């Protein structure tokens, strides 16, 4: 090793010529992974540091459908200072008659102690107490988007339910807005006591109360939670604390960043092609040196050690460049990142994502360099001195094949363990391997077809085409490197394009046909008959569905804590809608068991959504405990049924026999299917008759979701774009590496009478052919990936996007043309006499 290191060190003094592509590919892949991980850590650290402000307190206790009772309030006050918040949806109404304007709003009722941490910033600037001052017409503040939508100005009046309020200010910032999760409407902020007489917070209405706690600094949060559990063992509340102030945001960030890391690993795989090509080219260039060393007695192991040490040094340099970029880019764009995020991000240098990126980069570099290094040590000195050149044919020794397999397993295993998405990581690795194999096969097929077609009689009158085909099929061509480098990058982009197009298509194509016009909530039992009568006699209404609804938390499965039995499934993370019915609703499909008979009066029975039951591991006969309005209700699962939530209609995970919920306060919900032209008149009629009812326009909700999905798609597309940039670097490297061969080729052609236009056309055609091959494979592989994600992850129908496919194919042809033609001038300007004389 001492001798090997001495020789390796002396050779490295010659500079980095030939390794620019190696360093660029490695650094880009590592930088992308490190940057994504750094932003994720910055958001997590920001959520942790600002957890109390985001949550609105050191801890939060939530109740559904009810306020805390006196004993419960006393138990909370024993822990610290308390602020009471109530949240629900309603309609803000402005004007009268034909000039009436309505807007869905998320109402937050607060008390004098709000906010415990941070401050509300209003425009015009004023204290919150002044803005929400009580009086004959109480004050309120609104999000600016709702003010603009309703055409309000500061000082104007609006109605919530049956009560009038005065707009005092616009909400500029709300300290706890990030902890509230996804909202369907802009915010209206007011005092809870001002809601008296509005008719909105009646028994059974859909609202939640939250009690924020400002705890003494020395308080142990786990002990505080345990104290409250002991004091209120059956209260049916949900506890959160500052350690996880915005759990929904944290889960979203973790999943998205993990997916982006996988996209970054795809970019690293693309870069690996460039790394392997650069090492192979370097070894071919060093054939004379290797031959000399072998003649002087150097063994194959020594040759391997020399160049492995060189590659190790260069890998270290590539790692350093990538990590500096990955850590520096978030710092450089910190203001932009902070403006685009809905939560605080503490942008800085975090060692864990840098270490993960370094691990990925080291494993990828070792994997992609081992093969050419192993083959180079098998080169025989005699063959090199005879100038046959090139790397030896065949596979390296079995030990190196086994080592490559171990490195691949470590890389995939690290991705599965560190990304947090083990199943998706394995699928992504299998998909990349399949795409890699397909691209290698297509490159081989392209060479075979080029060689065969160049000999056909049909191309003899087309010299540029014949030369291009011959070059594609000839030995030592760029077919494999070009198709692999561009094809893998385009495959990732094609998959993202198909997934994005199908997701948007599912929303735009399917939902308008099946989704209702309005989703109505807070219909009181005394109003449901009149509500139905109005709609049944309206000619613009196509269909109406109604159902009673309560909300409850699944606390136990077969007497054990539900989350301990079934984990953090979404059904268990919060309260779920519960309904009751004598008979199965229309179109219900029972997959197992039986629905209870009409007028059933026995023990409580439950019908559960079949898919969710399978995910939770539930079986017929299992017993569930639900906490509804602070009361535990236990029942036995006697049937499973299909529930399709994708239609935006009424769907309940849980349904029970009516006797199980007898006497529990509740309201009704309804879906209204109507002609688009009749929607406005229907809303006016219902809102005038029942001011307390909240109407959610389904299309508006879909638009909100679409906007969020567009942001996700943009982030993933940027990640795929980074992969494509890496592929472009590899492509440029392949084009640059073949410049010497094309100079010689052009010189021979010029000697035989070919002009520059003919040579240029032949170059352009060969690169276009390779780009076309890469694009076609990318479209096919991306289509398969898009189908798999649409079918098995999003569970939507898949429709192949021709427009996206054409863009990918066109991009492949254009990319290879630009890369190839950027290195066309040296061959075109070469002087044949000098070049050919130099070959003697």
What is the C-alpha radius of gyration, as a whole number of Å? Answer: 34 Å
Widest β-sheet, arrangement of strands: 2-3-8-5-7-6
What class, by secondary structure content?
A: alpha+beta
The structural domain count equals 4
Largest sheet: 6 strands, mixed, barrel
Number of strands: 21
Low-pLDDT parts are none
Keywords: Cell membrane, Membrane, Transmembrane, Transmembrane helix
Domain MacB-like periplasmic core: 24-230
Transmembrane segments: 21-39, 259-283, 304-337, 357-374, 395-418, 424-450, 767-788, 800-825
Pfam families: FtsX, MacB_PCD
What are the key terms here?
about 850 residues; alpha+beta; 4 domains; 21 strands; Membrane_comp_ABC_pdt; transmembrane helix
Task: Give your account of this protein's structure.
The protein is α+β, with helices and mostly antiparallel strands and 840 residues long. It has four domains: 214 residues, no CATH class; 156 residues, no CATH class; 226 residues, no CATH class; 134 residues, no CATH class. It contains 28 helices and 21 strands. It has a six-stranded mixed β-barrel. It has a six-stranded mixed β-barrel with strand order 12-14-19-16-18-17. Helix 2 packs antiparallel against helix 8, helix 8 packs parallel to helix 12 and helix 25 packs antiparallel against helix 26. The longest helix is centred in the last third of the chain and has 40 residues. The protein is elongated and about 100 Å long.
């Amino acid at each position: 090793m001492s001798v090997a290191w001495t020789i390796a060190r002396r050779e490295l003094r010659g500079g980095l010529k030939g390794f620019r592509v190696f360093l660029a590919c490695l650094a880009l892949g590592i930088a992308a992974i490190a940057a994504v991980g750094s932003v994720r850590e910055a958001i997590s650290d920001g959520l942790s540091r600002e957890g109390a402000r985001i949550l609105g307190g050191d801890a939060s206790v939530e109740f559904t459908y009810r306020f805390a009772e006196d004993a419960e309030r006393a138990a909370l006050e024993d822990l610290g200072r308390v602020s009471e918040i109530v949240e629900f949806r309603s309609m803000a109404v402005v004007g009268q008659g034909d000039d009436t304007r309505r807007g869905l709003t998320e109402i937050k009722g607060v008390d004098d102690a709000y906010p415990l941490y941070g401050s509300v910033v209003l425009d015009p600037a004023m204290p919150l107490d002044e803005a929400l001052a009580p009086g004959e017409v109480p004050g309120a503040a609104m999000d600016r988007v709702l003010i603009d939508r309703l055409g309000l100005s500061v000082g104007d009046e609006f109605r919530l339910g049956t009560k009038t309020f005065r707009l005092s200010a616009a909400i500029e910032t709300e300290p706890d807005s990030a902890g509230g999760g996804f909202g369907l409407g802009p915010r209206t902020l007011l005092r809870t006591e001002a809601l008296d007489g509005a008719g909105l917070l009646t028994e059974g209405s859909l609202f939640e109360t939250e009690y924020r706690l400002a705890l003494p600094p020395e308080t142990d949060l786990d002990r505080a939670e345990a104290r409250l559990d002991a004091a209120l063992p059956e209260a049916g509340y949900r506890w959160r604390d500052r350690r996880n102030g915005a759990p929904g945001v944290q889960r979203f960030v973790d999943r998205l960043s993990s997916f982006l890391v996988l996209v970054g690993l795809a970019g690293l795989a693309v870069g690996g092609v460039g790394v392997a090509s650069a090492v192979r080219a370097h070894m071919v260039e060093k054939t004379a040196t290797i031959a000399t060393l072998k003649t002087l007695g150097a063994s194959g192991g020594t040759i391997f050690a020399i160049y492995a040490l060189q590659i190790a040094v260069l890998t270290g340099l590539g790692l350093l460049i990538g990590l500096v970029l990955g850590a520096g880019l978030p710092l450089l764009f910190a203001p932009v990142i902070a403006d685009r995020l809905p939560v605080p991000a503490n942008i800085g240098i975090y060692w864990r994502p840098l270490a993960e990126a370094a691990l990925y980069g080291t494993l990828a570099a070792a994997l992609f360099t081992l093969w050419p290094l192993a083959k180079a040590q098998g080169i025989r000195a005699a063959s090199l001195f005879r100038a046959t050149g090139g790397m030896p044919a065949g596979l390296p020794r079995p030990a190196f094949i086994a080592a490559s397999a171990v490195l691949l397993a470590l890389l995939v295993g690290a991705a599965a363990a560190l990304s947090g998405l083990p199943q998706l990581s394995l699928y992504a690795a299998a998909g990349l391997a399949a795409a890699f194999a397909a691209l290698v096969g297509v490159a081989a097929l392209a060479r075979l077809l080029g060689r065969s077609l160049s000999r056909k009689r049909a191309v003899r009158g087309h010299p540029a085409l014949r030369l291009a085909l011959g070059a594609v099929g000839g030995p030592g061509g760029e077919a494999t490197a070009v198709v692999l480098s561009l094809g893998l990058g385009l495959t990732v982009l094609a998959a993202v394009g198909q997934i994005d197009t199908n997701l948007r298509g599912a929303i735009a194509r399917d939902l308008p046909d099946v989704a209702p016009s309005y989703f109505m909530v807070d219909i009181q039992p005394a109003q449901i008959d009149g509500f139905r009568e109005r709609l049944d006699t309206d000619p613009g209404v196509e269909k109406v569905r109604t159902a009673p609804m309560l909300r409850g938390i699944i606390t136990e499965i077969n007497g054990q804590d539900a989350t301990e039995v079934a984990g953090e499934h979404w059904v268990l993370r919060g309260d779920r809608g519960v309904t009751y019915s004598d008979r199965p609703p229309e179109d219900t499909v029972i997959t197992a068991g039986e629905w209870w008979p009409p007028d059933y009066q026995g023990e409580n029975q439950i019908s559960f959504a079949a898919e969710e039951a399978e995910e939770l591991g539930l079986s017929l006969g299992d017993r569930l405990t639900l906490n509804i309005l602070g009361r535990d209700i236990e029942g036995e699962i006697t049937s499973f049924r299909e529930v399709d939530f994708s239609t935006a209609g009424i769907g309940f995970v849980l349904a029970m026999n009516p006797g199980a919920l007898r006497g529990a306060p509740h309201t009704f919900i309804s879906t209204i299917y109507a002609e688009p032209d009749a929607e406005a008149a229907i809303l006016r009629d219902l809102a005038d008759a029942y001011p307390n009812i909240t109407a959610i326009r389904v299309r508006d909700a879909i638009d909100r979701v679409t906007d969020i999905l567009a942001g996700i798609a943009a982030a993933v597309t940027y990640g795929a774009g980074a992969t494509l940039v890496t592929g472009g670097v590899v492509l440029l490297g392949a084009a640059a590496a073949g410049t010497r061969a094309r100079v010689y080729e052009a010189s021979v052609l010029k000697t035989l009478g070919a002009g520059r236009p003919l040579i240029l056309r032949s170059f352009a055609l060969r690169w276009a052919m390779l780009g076309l091959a890469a694009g076609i494979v990318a479209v096919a592989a991306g289509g398969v990936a898009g189908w798999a994600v649409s079918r098995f992850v999003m569970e939507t129908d898949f429709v192949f996007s021709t427009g996206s496919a054409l863009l990918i194919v066109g991009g492949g042809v254009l990319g290879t043309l630009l890369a190839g033609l950027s290195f066309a001038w040296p061959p075109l300007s070469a002087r044949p006499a000098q070049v050919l004389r130099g070959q003697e």
